[in-house]
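Lecture notes, unit on protein representations.

Consider one protein chain, 433 amino acids long.
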Amino acid sequence: MENFVEELKWRGMLAQMMPGTEDYLLHNLTSAYLGTDPTADSLHIGHLCGIMMLRHLQHCGHKPYLLVGGATGMIGDPSGKSLERNLLDQDTLYHNQESIKKQVSKFLDFEGTEPNKAELVNNYDWMKDFKFLDFVRDVGKHITVNYMMAKDSVQKRLNGEAHDGLSFTEFTYQLLQGYDFLYLYQHHGVRLQLGGNDQWGNMTTGTELIRRTLGNEAEAYCLTCPLITKADGKKFGKTESGNVWLDRNRTTPYAFYQFWLNVSDEDAERYIKIFTDLNKETIDALVAEHSQDPGRRVLQKRLAEEVTLMVHSKEDLDMAIAASNILFGKATKEQLSTLDEATLNDVFKDVPHYELPKEQLGGKAVDLFCQEGWDIFPSKGEMRKMVKGGGVSLNKEKVTAFDQAVTADDLIDGKYLLVQRGKKNYFLITVKD
């Protein structure tokens, strides 16, 4: 087995761990779990650091468990939240669980025959038949209210700006999460819990519950990764349009690729260690190459390629790169035609958009593109000059005559026309029935 703690350290993925954790991992094939709440049917990149911890754990020879919080997801975790979470019904939770497992299967081996193959568990399975009286008698008696009140997550919520307080439902969250660890310890031999650093309080409640229930000789450990931020201190993984999701229907592979491609130099150097499998020698070489000519964005390009490939596929990566070239480099009509509609709209979301009635198709380019209220060309005369000088393209092909007909055969995806004026000015026209 490889040294899991050392792997996390050089990657900048270690925040805290309980004494004895590293020694235990070095001498035992260790089962470890990380919890995630199934509040959506997709993970976003804010979850990726935790998933990468499980990936590195498995690569180092240990056994990863992903716990989907079907029960705790019905309650809501007060850590870092100012409002109580919406409660989900059972059917929604099951759908979300299956979607999450499919995504995580790209990172972890669930199908292998090795003793350290990954497992997925749902705490709803062991909580659904747990009667309240049994829970308070068998679990609640071991943890004092004083102990629970001292947790940062509880104190911040009680003393925060929101004056709604903390519901009993949320207050019990750390007991439920603690019981998860106890259950997995007893039934699956799990000895280590992984999580983000904001979960430290809940995680140590689990080790405390194990020791108070099973005795001080019980070996249970916690290890956290830091909360990932951007170099400017702002929250990682958010864009103006919201979260960057792993689900292509929520965030297209192109937009996903662009997120990583556009991070700062400082962030790229940190993120390539956290979010890829590249070894230290490779990363050090990339950092050195990048420092010689930052303008080439070597780090960002490799980071974007590695993460897009891992989350999506080689085909999606190729399309994302081709889409990037359409806007920022030379491309052909054929390459433009390979983009799906969602990607096309993502690529050109910031360019001027116009709508054209379908019955106008067949008209002359100069009449269609110089309509009143449109700013593609200052005038028909200006368009004539630009066409003559080779400065106008339709769907990445030069317009050779200002009065050429624009027909249904020119439409991309049966509904779009892309007009380019000069090198950098794009206009997207949607043809409406």
